[in-house]
Design a protein that fits this description.
Shape of chain B: globular
Number of strands of chain A: 0
Oligomer: heterodimer
Number of helices of chain B: 8
CATH superfamily of chain A: MetI-like
Bound molecules: adenosine-5'-triphosphate, magnesium ion
Radius of gyration of chain B: 20 Å
Strand content of chain B: 15-25%
Chain lengths: 228, 265
């Protein structure tokens, strides 16, 4: 148990970034995904096609490629060096890298979520909309008061899968040098020339995912008071 | 002028001409049953009345007020709720219990009304709360009237088909529509459950509700209706008092239809 304390400290710091990236992605991609879903079901064809192509491209290419693209875009396309962008955003270089990663994650996960939302929305029987309409509800009210909760209920299992995957995907952040949990473990392995940091990192991931699974399972159970 | 006037409703789905000019008149408190073989546009007619479909031509007037075609400028969003609708497969909202299914539309209506007034903040919240309590009372009365006082807190998945349909009837009554439409309210039910739903409809007739009922229950239609509308090929083939239609139908199509259903029954 040599250097246990130091290693743990470093891993905790990395874990902080992992959790931050996870939370930011989830908080932004869940609503954005719903907007994307509306876009891909829009009656306005150009928007619908744009969303479909975007979703196809994002789901069809590696997330790592998207992260790299986002990080190079300002410099290569808009001729704004990353340093200059960082000072304009009032962020450190590290924070800017985190920002790039987060942007790529949010867009990527919004696309995955949007497909889940769309599938969920499309399974709601048309009778639900009609029953709402004859009761005088507007389209928005039908969606928010009647359809949405049923969609949530239906998509929770596939959403849970995606959320668990997100936890593991956060390790891709290290491509831009972000010190996430796995990157911190890698540094520790190199620094102390022992393999145990990987084991600790694995335990961190397992505990995090274990808690998430419990939480999502609990929500699912809470919602299973009715059948859809 | 009659209470409800339906004039020359035409509805096509692409090439399919479903309604080819349906006209009838109805007084307040009357009950009409719509009969006819499958695919003759009975459901489509009810859907046009409830604005679930937009008729291609025609005019609908209720109480002297034209509700279709809508006046220019204001249209579309929100249904005026002159009509209520009870669907063949209930379409209850599964995430709400019986009581909530009935109060939902009333509460939204109260919200809209209170939002339209200038009151704000605590006063608004107080009035909303008051309205919700009032709505809940109304809903409880309605559910009691359809015989479900013991099932108010049950979710649709915990109710039998007949009970679900009775909740649906209470829900349709919640906004006190002028005219209540039923689209084959018992077709999705096991035979032993149709009775309880038909009983409720009969009871509504005795209370003087204006109702249009699409049904295949000939006996029931005979007992409950003031007039029978027999539809064939997208028009009203024959219309009249039950005894006239059932015993002395003039049109051949009508006679054939009843001859056939008699054999079946
Ligand atoms: N949305 C639609 N698009 C295209 N055709 C439709 C649509 N709705 C109904 N139709 C057609 O309109 C015709 C009449 O349908 P409708 O449901 O009104 O008949 P119905 O008299 O209610 O029959 P049933 O007794 O079987 O319920 C049918 O031929 C049907 O295929
Ligand atoms: Mg029908």
């Amino acid at each position: 148990m040599e250097h246990f304390q130091e290693i743990l400290m470093e891993l905790c710091e990395g874990f902080g970034n992992t959790v931050l990236l996870f939370a930011v992605t989830l908080l932004c991609a869940l609503p954005l995904g719903l907007l994307f879903a509306f876009g891909s079901m829009s009656k306005f064809k150009p928007l619908q096609w744009f969303m479909k192509v975007l979703i196809w491209v994002i789901r069809g290419t590696p997330l790592m490629l998207q992260i790299l693209l986002v990080s190079f875009l300002p410099q290569y396309v808009f001729q704004v060096p990353t340093k200059q962008l960082a000072s304009a955003l009032n962020l450190s270089i590290n924070a800017t890298m985190f920002f790039f990663v987060a942007v790529a994650f949010v867009i990527n996960y919004a696309c995955y979520f949007s497909e889940i939302y769309r599938a969920g929305i499309e399974t709601i029987p048309v009778g639900q909309y009609e029953a709402g309409k004859v009761l005088g509800l507007t389209k928005n009210q039908v969606f928010t008061k009647i359809v949405f909760m049923q969609v949530v209920r239906r998509i929770l299992p596939p959403m849970s899968n995606e959320i668990i995957t997100l936890v593991k995907d956060t390790s891709l952040a290290q491509i831009l040098g972000v010190i996430d949990l796995l990157n911190a473990a890698k540094h520790a392995v190199n620094e102390y020339v022992i393999l145990t940091p990987f084991l600790y990192a694995a335990i961190f991931y397992l505990i995090f995912n274990g808690l998430l699974t419990l939480l999502l399972g609990w929500v699912e159970k809470k919602l299973s008071y009715y059948k859809v | 002028m009659a209470f409800l006037e339906v004039k020359n409703i035409v509805k096509n789905f692409g090439e399919t001409k479903v309604l080819r000019g349906v006209s009838f008149e109805m007084e307040q408190g009357e009950v009409f049953s719509v009969l006819g073989s499958s695919g003759n546009g009975k459901t489509t007619l009810l859907r046009c009345l409830n604005f679930l479909e937009t008729a291609d031509e025609g005019e609908i007037t209720v109480g002297g007020k034209r509700i279709f075609p809508p006046e220019k400028g204001k249209a579309k969003e929100g249904n005026p709720c002159t009509f209520g609708m009870v669907f063949q497969n209930f379409n209850l909202f599964p995430q709400y219990n019986a009581l909530q299914n009935v109060t939902l539309a009333m509460n939204i209506k109260s919200q809209n009304e209170i939002k339209a007034t200038p009151c704000k903040g605590a006063e608004r919240r107080r009035r909303l709360k008051e309205a919700y309590a009032q709505n809940e009372e109304t809903a409880k009365e309605l559910l009691a009237r359809v015989g479900l006082e013991n099932k108010m807190k049950n979710y649709p998945c915990e109710l039998s088909g007949g009970q679900q349909q009775r909740v649906a009837i209470a829900r349709a009554l919640a906004l006190s529509p002028d005219i209540l439409c039923f689209d084959e309210p018992t077709s999705a039910l096991d035979p032993e459950l149709t009775g309880e739903v038909l009983k409720v409809i009969k009871q509504l007739r005795d209370e003087g509700r204006t109702m249009i009922i699409v049904t295949h229950e000939i006996e029931f239609a005979k007992n409950v209706s003031d007039k029978i509308i027999f539809m064939a090929d997208g028009v009203i083939e024959e219309m009249g008092a039950p005894e006239d239609i059932f015993e002395h139908a003039k049109s051949e199509k009508t006679q054939n239809f009843f001859a056939k259903t008699e054999v079946e029954q």
